[in-house]
Design goal:
7 helices, 7 strands, Protocatechuate 4,5-dioxygenase, Chain B, single chain, 224 residues, alpha/beta
Length: 224
Amino acid sequence: MTRTLVSAAVCPHPPLLLRELGGGHDSVPALRTACGAALDRLLRDSPDTVVVVGRAVGTWSAGELPDGAEDAPGSLSVARRLLSEAGWTGRIEWQAIAADADAASCDLVGAEVARGDDRVALLVMADGSASRTPKAPGYFDERAEAFDASVVKALQRGEPEALRHLDSAMAEELLMQGRPALHVLGAAVHHAGRSVAGTEVHYLDDPFGVLYYVVTWTLRRGSA
């Protein structure tokens, strides 16, 4: 049996979204506001469960995250904070996806995420490339803008199949941490037999040379 996926949100996971790491200064106020708006939209349809997908050292799933920051992947720790700030007290499933997971592995995880009989909202933690400016972690790579544009196009147009066919080698070269999680999003929507009924872009910018996008999808039954 496949789950009813009602909505999805894509948020980035810079550590500065954890307020205590900003030294009392909020370095990303616009991004924080956008993430809050996306979480409000994600939860509007009263899901039974929120499934969080994020990059980690390995691939695993769990019903709870370790309490210690050193034991929980950064992407999922940020997601936990966002859900807490949004007031979510319901059921959460945590799905880590390995940074180097290949397409077949991501598809398998997406199929597993789609399996069940409850109403689900997907929170996908995914950064864009980190090679957009000379001050970026990956310095400047002229290929980053076009590659990121293809991902943004898929998110804006609600194209889950495009997310399943991202160039993993290019993503790695451009230090794009979100590629596996975005692939899982596309695969989960596919395997659940859902399509994208509407999209909203809440944020799109690269303040530190890393592209951050905050996007929500409304999902429906059947093909587009």
